[in-house]
C-alpha cells in the first residue's frame, strides 16, 4: 500500500498498543505481559494418509477430519481461547491441525466434516463477496478445504465457491460431494491444507483452520540421508495473532479502514504475538546434531525474515512442495505468507547452549524505503550438550537433480497478469484489489492448455509485495525487473489496462534487475512479486516428473481430467487481499 498508508497503519498500531497497555474492555493484550519461551513446542499428531494390508502392501487411505468450534491454549498465562480447529474429533482438534503424511503414488481420501456453529465469532464483513453473505451470516459458517501445493482434480481442490455449512445444509454453486481425493502422484515435498471459502479465508484461517501435509517417498528420500524420524524432522507452522486483554480471546479489528465502504475489512492483519505450532514464542530442546525443519508461514499478511543467533545457518533442501537440485546455505531468508522453507540446522555448530530464531521483516512488507523493522523473537532452541547417539545424518551435495530445469523456450504462450489496488477517492485507503482489472466473479480469461508451459509476466502496480499462488501448477521465477517512471505507467494502466499501449517495454528498459535468491530458483507454488516491478515466471501445466503409472498416451498429462469440474484459481496469498477480489478463475483445456 502507499507510503502514507504505511505510516497510517503504524500510527493505528501505536494507538491500539497504547490502549492495550491501559487494558480494559476490548483492548489488546500487551504482548510484554506474556513471558517468552515458557511453553514447549508441540508437534502436531501425524495421520497416516495410506493403509497397509496384512501382507504389507500399501493401499489408499481414508480419513475423516472435522472442523470444530473448540478452545486452545496459546500460552501458559492465557486462558483457553475460542478457535475453529481441525481434528479427528472435537477432543483431538488443535491449532494447527494434525499433520497428514501421504505416500507418493498412494491415494488419500479425506472426508472433511463441518461442525462449525451458526455464526462466526470474528468480524467477516458482509460487503465483500463471500459465502456467508448469501446466508445472511446466520445459516452456519461456510468452509471448504484447499490442499495447497497438491496436484488434484478441481472437484477436490477446494474451489472457493465449493463451500458447505454443517450437515451440508447449504452449499456453494461449485460444491463437490465428499470425500476429497488426493492422488499424491507428485514428487515428495511439503504441502499444507487450509480453509478456502470465498471471502472468508482470512477469518477462518485466523480462527485456526490450517494444517501441514507431507508427500513422502522413502525410495527417493532415504538415500539423501537427511535427518529423519518424528524427533528430528519437525514441521514449524508460524503465524501472528493478537489477543484481547481481559479474556485472552483472539482479536481482529471490527472496524474497517474504509468503514463507509467496507465496515470491517482491513487491508492486512498483523498480530503482535508470534505463534509457532500453536504456542506463543515456544522453546524446543535439541541435541548437538542436525535437525530438519519444514517452516510454513501461515500468517494472513506477515512476512518473516528469519535468522538464528550464535552464528548458526540454514541449509535449504526444499522450497514449497519441491526439493531443490542441490542444498543452499543462508544466514537469513525471507518467507512470505503460504511459503514453505525446508531447512536443515546443525546445532553442533553452535558455541552456546541456546539459539534464538528471530524475525526482522517490516509489516506491511516491504514497508517504506529506509524503514528498519524491530527484531523480534520467534522461538528458542535449548541445546543440550550430551548426546548419547552419534549423528549419522548428512546433507548431500546433490538432492533432486533429475527434475527438469526451467527453460523459457518451452513456453507455448505468454500472458500478462497485472496487479491493481483501488483506493477511496482522495485517500490512500484501499477498497479492493484486482488482477487484470477484473473481479473474481468476472468470466474466465486464463485458459492454459494441459501439457504445456506458459510464460507469465506479472506486473505489480501496487506498493506491496504480493505472494502469488497458482493452483495445480508449479512455476519457476526467471527474472524480476523494476519499472522506471512507475507512476506514469500506473496512471496509464489504470485508464487503459493495456501494457503495450502504455509502453511497458520503455518503462522496463534499464530498470534494475533483482536477483532471485538461490534457494528459490527451483520449482515453486508461491513467489514474492516485488512492488513496481515485472516478474517473469514459467508456469508448468503438466506433471513435474513422468508418472510411472502413466500410459504412453497419458504422458505430459495429469492423472485425472483437468477439463472437468469447477476449475482452478490463482491469487495473491495475502489472505486479506485474496478475500477482497485479488483472485481469478482459471480453466485448463486440452
Automatic annotation (TrEMBL):
Q: Which GO terms describe its cellular component?
A: endoplasmic reticulum membrane
* Keywords, sorted A to Z: Copper, Endoplasmic reticulum, Glycoprotein, Membrane, Metal-binding, Oxidoreductase, Signal
InterPro entries xref list: Cu-oxidase_C, Cupredoxin, LPR1/LPR2
Compartments it resides in: Endoplasmic reticulum membrane
Q: Which residues form the Plastocyanin-like domain?
A: 425-587
GO function term, MF aspect, one: metal ion binding
In what way does this protein cross or attach to the membrane? Peripheral membrane protein
Position of the signal peptide = 1-23
Q: Which cofactor does it need?
A: Cu cation
> PANTHER family from the entry?
MULTICOPPER OXIDASE LPR1-LIKE
Recorded family membership = Belongs to the multicopper oxidase family.
**Could you tell me what this protein does?**
Multicopper oxidase that may play a role in the maintenance of inorganic phosphate homeostasis.
Which named protein is this? Answer: Plastocyanin-like domain-containing protein
Organism, scientific name = Urochloa decumbens
Amino acid at each position: 500500500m502507499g507510503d502514507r498508508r504505511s505510516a497510517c497503519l503504524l500510527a493505528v498500531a501505536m494507538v491500539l498498543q497504547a490502549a492495550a497497555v491501559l487494558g480494559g474492555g476490548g483492548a489488546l493484550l500487551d504482548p510484554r505481559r506474556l513471558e517468552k519461551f515458557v511453553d514447549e513446542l508441540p508437534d502436531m499428531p501425524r495421520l497416516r494418509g495410506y493403509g497397509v494390508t496384512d501382507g504389507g502392501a500399501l493401499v489408499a487411505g481414508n480419513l475423516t477430519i472435522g472442523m470444530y468450534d473448540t478452545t486452545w491454549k496459546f500460552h501458559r498465562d492465557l486462558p483457553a481461547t475460542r478457535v475453529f480447529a481441525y481434528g479427528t474429533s472435537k477432543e483431538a482438534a488443535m491449532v494447527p491441525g494434525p499433520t497428514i503424511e501421504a505416500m507418493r503414488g498412494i491415494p488419500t481420501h479425506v472426508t472433511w466434516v463441518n461442525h462449525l456453529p451458526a455464526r462466526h465469532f470474528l468480524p467477516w464483513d458482509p460487503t465483500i463477496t463471500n459465502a456467508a453473505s448469501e446466508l445472511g451470516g446466520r445459516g452456519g459458517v461456510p468452509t471448504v478445504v484447499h490442499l495447497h501445493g497438491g496436484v488434484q482434480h478441481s472437484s477436490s481442490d477446494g474451489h472457493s465457491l465449493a463451500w458447505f455449512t454443517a450437515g451440508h445444509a447449504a452449499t456453494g454453486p461449485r460444491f463437490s460431494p465428499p470425500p476429497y481425493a488426493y492422488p499424491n502422484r507428485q514428487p515428495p515435498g511439503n504441502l499444507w491444507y487450509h480453509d478456502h471459502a470465498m471471502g472468508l479465508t482470512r477469518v477462518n484461517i485466523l480462527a485456526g483452520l490450517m494444517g501441514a501435509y507431507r508427500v513422502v517417498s522413502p525410495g527417493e528420500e532415504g538415500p539423501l540421508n537427511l535427518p529423519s524420524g518424528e524427533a528430528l524432522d519437525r514441521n514449524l507452522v508460524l503465524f501472528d495473532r493478537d489477543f484481547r486483554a481481559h479474556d485472552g480471546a483472539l482479536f481482529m479489528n471490527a472496524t474497517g479502514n474504509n468503514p463507509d465502504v467496507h465496515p470491517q475489512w482491513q487491508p492486512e492483519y498483523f498480530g503482535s504475538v508470534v505463534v509457532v505450532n500453536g504456542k506463543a514464542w515456544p522453546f524446543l530442546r535439541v541435541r548437538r546434531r542436525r535437525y530438519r525443519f519444514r517452516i510454513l508461514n501461515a500468517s494472513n499478511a506477515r512476512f518473516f525474515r528469519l535468522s538464528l543467533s550464535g552464528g548458526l545457518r540454514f541449509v535449504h533442501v526444499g522450497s514449497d512442495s519441491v526439493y531443490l537440485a542441490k542444498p543452499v546455505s543462508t544466514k537469513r531468508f525471507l518467507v512470505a505468507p503460504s511459503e514453505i522453507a525446508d531447512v536443515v540446522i546443525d546445532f553442533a555448530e553452535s558455541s552456546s547452549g541456546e539459539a534464538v530464531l528471530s524475525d526482522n521483516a517490516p509489516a506491511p512488507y516491504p514497508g517504506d524505503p529506509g524503514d528498519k523493522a524491530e527484531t523480534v523473537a520467534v522461538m528458542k532452541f535449548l541445546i543440550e550438550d550430551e548426546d548419547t547417539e552419534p549423528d549419522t545424518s548428512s546433507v548431500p551435495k546433490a538432492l533432486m537433480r533429475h527434475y527438469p530445469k526451467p527453460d523459457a523456450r518451452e513456453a507455448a504462450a505468454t500472458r500478462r497478469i497485472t496487479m491493481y489496488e483501488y483506493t477511496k477517492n482522495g485517500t490512500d485507503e484501499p477498497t479492493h484489489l484486482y488482477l487484470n482489472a477484473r473481479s473474481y466473479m468476472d468470466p474466465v480469461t486464463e485458459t492454459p492448455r494441459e501439457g504445456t508451459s506458459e510464460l507469465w509476466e506479472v506486473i505489480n502496480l501496487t506498493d506491496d509485495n504480493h505472494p502469488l499462488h497458482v493452483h495445480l501448477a508449479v512455476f519457476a521465477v526467471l527474472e524480476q525487473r523494476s519499472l522506471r517512471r512507475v507512476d506514469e505507467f500506473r496512471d496509464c494502466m489504470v485508464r487503459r489496462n493495456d501494457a503495450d499501449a502504455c509502453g511497458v517495454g520503455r518503462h522496463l528498459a534499464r530498470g534494475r534487475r533483482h536477483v532471485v535468491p538461490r534457494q528459490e530458483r527451483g520449482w515453486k507454488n508461491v513467489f514474492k512479486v516485488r512492488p513496481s516491478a515485472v516478474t517473469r515466471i514459467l508456469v508448468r501445466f503438466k506433471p513435474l516428473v513422468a508418472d510411472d503409472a502413466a500410459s504412453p498416451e497419458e504422458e505430459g498429462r495429469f492423472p485425472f481430467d483437468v477439463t472437468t469440474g469447477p476449475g482452478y484459481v490463482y491469487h495473491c496469498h495475502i489472505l486479506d487481499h485474496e478475500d477482497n477480489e485479488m483472485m481469478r478463475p482459471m480453466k485448463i483445456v486440452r
